[in-house]
């Protein structure tokens, strides 16, 4: 047994007397009868009775437990939190069944698959491959997939940085970059989703009118007139929009159920295409095209595909005058689907970009592609001018939909795990399908048929449908239903997104759309969505809608990448994503790709999207705000600084924006040098919080007389800060009393919202020395810090702390006794951001009370740390309610005896001062009259005699106070456990017990003794006391 736990023989009798007063069950002295209680215990009788419910092992923290919960209480209250906003409930209604918690497959992967695979896959991918060629087509798809993959990585980092309630990109960006960016991105995302609904509706109409029911055209033969085709799309698109809008308005449940059907259609259709590719590996004898020379013809029956037939002659030789190209070239039948074994892949490697009005033909010979005569006859022409960048814009909507998982985060069982895995796996799956489809289409289908956008050369059939197995109707029906389902999902999601933005009240003119109908549906937002969607339908062309909505999605994805890059570079304390495979360079690359694709695709559409974002941003930022213009760069810098300070002054920062603004109180020695140099190193190691550091020292004296000393001390302080790489400011205050000076500094230091919120003060090692009042200054400072609602850190053993240029390994142990805002969780995380502590592992210990379930407590604590994104080993320490040991009584007796001795010595000093003055008078008379008698030595011996008498009286009368025994018991028991578990730890972080409420010398001295006992045997200790507010959160 260590020496400090041994009971000396001199005090054994006294200790045993008080042990007999304890009951066998371990009850404390509060249960002793009135006549048996020591007189000193009467002072605290009422206070102790009120605290009888406190665990005996935690009496040292009894003042804290009144306002700060014990850890078991705290973590059990948040272990089963809800991450969604509760809806209004009917008090008379039956309680609803608990919502299903979806996993990665159902909650993220499949919804992303459904939203990514869209109409472009079925009606435009073959045309993109034929026009761009296999190489450029592969690059187009790869570029789009890279954009979404990089965005998904950034989104995964943001989504796993805490609990993300439902809201998708709008919620993530608005909470990461602020309401201005959030509002702008929210409106962009809303507009893109609405235009996506328009594109899906036009695509669905195109599938029906072009490939399923061409007889339904109301504007004549649209194969001969493109305007007639687009007018058909506008009319039928409008009717379909009205029908789908009614479905969304009346039955949202139907939309959700239909989503499953649409998903099944998408998957079955893709499987049918892949099976068909290998089923037609040697080609398809049922599908032929008619080709004149190298030009592709349309509306020509195969039996008439010959020059010997009068059908072609009547077309190309009106009035017996034949068209020159017809005369100079032969007519042939070409197999449309040649199969992978044919080697047609080599014919589809290179691009075949055309300008509007040029003929679709083999090769790039101007004779074959140019329309010299002005008549198209039955030759298929390019309806738009194509280029690499334009095709990127047309194809890009095929890879959107990656936000589907994050939009459902409120319904996921483990969003931080499911969103990254599900989203990235969905992107990898769809990218694999797209990239392989490019190669398979290029290796299966003839180049002319690939470039035939509407399948006019094969009788108005969909090219992909004719590849599929067993027949084309699998694809036609499947693509129509999946496109319809995607449109319904867009019409359902867009109004809810608009309503969420309106309810945030960041865009005032959207306030009317925040209201819901009596059924809880966003009816007003739905009406606006239908109006905007109708504007998109009036464009009537998927090839125009696709690049336009691509702009809005690219802007949205660009802001997601920007948010991740900014958070990573700023390294805010709350930025702790559980998803680790991200980097700011990847986010910036994603942002660059988004901007580049926007500009390359359509610079005027890009300007529209950017202009819309800028207008919304400025509107949110400057509504009601005053602008002040300075002169030159300095004027703008001063305006920005003033604006930022005034913004910070508006209120305390949000929990996730809290960062330690450190005030270091450095003690100076007699040479005006900082006493503890490593306290500056410690402040530097906390710089991961990116907070402000101010170092201040207080000198005792008159400022008018020692101004030069103050200046020298400030220069020395600044040099120490520079040497230890502390970023911040320093100052020196001259005051009549050190304690008053420190109090003034704590209350007044800082400017506006940049006032320090955390104080670092050294431990007063000399507090036991007679004549030193450092402990009084220390406790006064602790009280001042608490009154100012600031956090406090007291490093003990500071000289053993590592230098900033050293690297250490081992454990950082956190002893979490009471919850005071989560500062104990945040500090080790910040320390580990510095290279000195980076290799250390975190271990968190907490104490279970008698009534606690330690197994459940450990599980809840692990859950809490998981949502905090902090990796640490967890251990719950069970402390039995043991009897108070003899050593506890001995240590308490020694502490109280010391206090009474000091009090007696203080009284004797006053008496001795009178004796000394009398002796001085006698010495003066002796010096003048000569030596007559020498009584001074006898009088001078009075001090020793009185001290001995006081010591004897104390030993015979003092008995330990119950109040002190309980706290000493807590300090000793906790210290035993901490030393046992953490003696080899590189740093032990623990709660600093609150100072005594009574301003009495005995209580304050006892408090210091309790802290000494609590930290005894530990080399490096950091005692922490929160400022009374939360500094860490599980939310993003």
Question: What distance separates the N and C termini?
Answer: 50 Å
CATH architecture of one domain: 3-Layer(aba) Sandwich
Number of helices: 36
User: Can you identify the CATH superfamily of one domain?
Assistant: HUPs
- Strand proportion, as a percent range, falls in 5-15%
Largest sheet: 10 strands, mixed
CATH class of one domain: Alpha Beta
Helix/strand structural class: alpha/beta
Strand order of the largest sheet: 6-5-4-7-8-13-12-9-10-11
pLDDT < 50 runs, ≥5 residues: 1-52, 80-100, 624-636, 909-957
Helix coverage percent of residues?
A: 40-55%
At CATH level 3, the topology of one domain is Rossmann fold
Give the overall shape, derived from the CA principal axes. elongated
| Tally of DSSP β-strands | 13
Q: What's the pLDDT, averaged over the residues?
A: 79
| Backbone CA Rg | 41 Å
Description:
- The relative contact order is 0.12.
- The chain has a domain at 653-792: Rossmann fold, CATH 3.40.50.620.
- It has 36 helices and 13 strands.
- Residues 1-52, 80-100, 624-636 and 909-957 have low confidence and may be disordered.
- With 1036 residues, it is an alpha/beta fold.
- It has a ten-stranded mixed sheet with strand order 6-5-4-7-8-13-12-9-10-11, sandwiched between helices.
Record keyword descriptors for this entry:
single chain; 1036 residues; alpha/beta; Rossmann fold; ten-stranded mixed β-sheet; three-stranded antiparallel β-sheet; 36 helices; 7% strand; disordered N terminus; potassium; transmembrane helix
């Amino acid at each position: 047994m260590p020496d400090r736990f041994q009971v000396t023989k001199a005090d054994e009798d006294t200790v045993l007397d008080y042990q007999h007063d304890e009951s066998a069950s371990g009850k404390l002295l509060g249960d002793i009868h009135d006549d048996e209680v020591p007189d000193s215990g009467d002072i605290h009788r009422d206070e102790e009775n009120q605290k009888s419910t406190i665990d005996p092992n935690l009496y040292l923290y009894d003042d804290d437990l009144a306002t700060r919960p014990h850890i078991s209480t705290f973590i059990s209250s948040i272990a089963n939190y809800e991450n969604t906003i509760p809806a209004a409930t009917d008090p008379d209604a039956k309680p609803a069944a608990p919502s299903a918690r979806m996993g990665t497959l159902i909650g993220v992967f499949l919804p992303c698959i459904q939203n990514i695979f869209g109409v472009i896959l079925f009606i435009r991918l073959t045309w993109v491959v034929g026009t761009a060629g296999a190489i450029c087509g592969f690059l187009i798809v790869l570029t789009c997939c890279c954009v979404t993959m990089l965005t998904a990585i950034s989104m995964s980092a943001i989504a796993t940085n805490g609990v993300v309630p439902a809201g998708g990109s709008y919620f993530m960006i608005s909470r990461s970059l602020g309401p201005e960016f959030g509002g702008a991105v929210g409106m962009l995302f809303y507009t893109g989703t609405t235009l996506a609904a328009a594109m899906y509706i036009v695509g669905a109409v195109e599938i029906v009118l072009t490939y399923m029911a061409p007889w339904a055209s109301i504007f004549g033969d649209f194969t001969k007139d493109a305007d007639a085709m687009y007018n058909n799309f506008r009319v039928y698109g409008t009717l379909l929009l009205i029908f789908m809008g009614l479905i969304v308005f009346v039955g949202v449940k139907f939309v959700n159920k239909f989503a499953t059907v649409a998903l099944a259609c998408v998957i079955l259709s893709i499987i049918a295409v892949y099976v068909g590719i290998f089923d037609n590996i040697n080609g398809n004898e049922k599908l032929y095209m008619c080709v004149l020379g190298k030009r592709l013809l349309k509306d020509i029956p195969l039996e008439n595909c010959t020059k010997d037939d009068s059908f072609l002659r009547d077309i190309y030789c009106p009035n017996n005058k034949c068209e020159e190209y017809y005369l100079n070239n032969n007519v042939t039948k070409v197999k449309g689907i040649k199969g992978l074994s044919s080697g047609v892949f080599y014919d589809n490697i290179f691009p075949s970009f055309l300008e509007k009005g040029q003929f679709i033909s083999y090769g790039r010979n101007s004779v074959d592609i140019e329309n010299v005569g002005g008549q198209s006859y039955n030759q298929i022409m390019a309806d738009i001018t194509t280029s690499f960048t334009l095709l990127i814009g047309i194809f890009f909507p095929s890879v959107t939909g990656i936000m589907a998982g994050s939009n459902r985060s409120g319904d996921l069982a483990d969003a931080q795990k499911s969103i990254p895995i599900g989203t990235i796996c969905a992107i990898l799956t769809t990218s694999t399908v797209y990239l392989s489809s490019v190669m398979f289409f290029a290796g299966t289908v003839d180049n002319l048929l690939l470039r035939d956008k509407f399948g006019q050369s094969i009788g108005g059939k969909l090219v992909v449908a004719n590849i599929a197995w067993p027949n084309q109707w699998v694809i036609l029906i499947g693509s129509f239903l999946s496109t319809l389902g995607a449109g319904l999902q867009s019409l359902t999601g867009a109004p809810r997104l608009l309503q969420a933005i309106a309810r945030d009240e960041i865009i005032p003119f959207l306030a009317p759309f925040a209201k819901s109908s009596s059924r809880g549906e966003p009816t007003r937002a739905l009406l606006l969505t239908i109006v905007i969607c109708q504007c998109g339908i009036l464009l009537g062309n998927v090839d125009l809608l696709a690049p336009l909505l691509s702009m809005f999605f690219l802007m949205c994805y660009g802001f997601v990448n920007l948010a991740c890059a900014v958070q990573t570079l700023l390294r805010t304390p709350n930025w702790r994503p559980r998803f680790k495979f991200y980097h700011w360079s990847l986010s910036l690359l994603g942002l660059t790709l988004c901007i580049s694709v926007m500009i390359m695709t359509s610079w005027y559409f890009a300007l529209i999207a950017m202009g819309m974002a800028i207008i919304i941003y400025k509107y949110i930022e400057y509504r009601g705000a005053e602008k002040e213009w300075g002169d030159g760069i300095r004027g703008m810098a001063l305006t920005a600084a003033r604006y930022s300070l005034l913004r910070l002054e508006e209120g305390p920062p949000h929990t996730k924006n809290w960062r330690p603004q450190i005030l270091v109180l450095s003690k100076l020695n007699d040479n005006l040098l900082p006493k503890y140099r490593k306290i500056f190193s410690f402040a530097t190691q906390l710089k991961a919080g990116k907070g402000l550091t101010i170092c201040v020292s207080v000198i005792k004296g008159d400022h008018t007389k020692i101004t030069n000393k103050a200046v020298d001390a400030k220069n020395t302080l600044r040099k120490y800060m520079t040497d230890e790489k502390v970023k911040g400011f320093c100052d020196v205050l001259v005051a009549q009393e050190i304690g008053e000076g420190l109090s003034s500094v704590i209350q007044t230091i800082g400017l506006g919202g940049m006032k320090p919120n955390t104080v670092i003060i050294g431990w007063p090692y000399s507090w036991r020395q007679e004549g030193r009042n450092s402990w009084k200054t220390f406790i006064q400072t602790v009280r001042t810090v608490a009154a100012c609602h600031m956090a406090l850190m007291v490093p003990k053993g500071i000289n053993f702390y590592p230098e900033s240029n050293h690297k250490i390994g081992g454990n950082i142990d956190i002893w979490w006794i009471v919850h005071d805002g989560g500062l104990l969780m945040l500090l080790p995380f910040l320390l580990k951001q510095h290279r000195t502590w980076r290799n250390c592992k975190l271990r968190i210990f907490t104490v279970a009370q008698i009534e606690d379930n330690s197994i459940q407590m450990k599980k809840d604590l692990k859950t809490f740390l998981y949502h905090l994104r902090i990796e640490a080993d967890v251990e719950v320490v069970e402390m039995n309610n043991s009897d108070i040991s003899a050593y506890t009584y001995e240590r308490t007796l020694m502490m109280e005896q010391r206090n009474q001795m000091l009090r007696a010595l203080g009284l004797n000093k006053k008496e001795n001062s009178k004796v000394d003055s009398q002796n001085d008078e006698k010495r003066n008379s002796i010096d003048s009259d000569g030596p007559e008698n020498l009584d001074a030595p006898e009088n001078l011996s009075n001090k020793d005699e009185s001290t001995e008498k006081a010591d004897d009286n104390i030993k015979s009368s003092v008995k330990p106070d119950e109040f002190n025994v309980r706290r000493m018991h807590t300090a000793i028991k906790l210290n035993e456990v901490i030393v046992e578990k953490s003696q080899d730890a590189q740093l032990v972080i623990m709660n600093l017990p609150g100072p005594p409420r009574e301003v009495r010398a005995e209580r304050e001295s006892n408090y210091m003794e309790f802290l000494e006992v609590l930290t005894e045997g530990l080399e490096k200790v950091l005692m922490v006391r929160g400022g009374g507010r939360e500094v860490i959160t599980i939310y993003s």
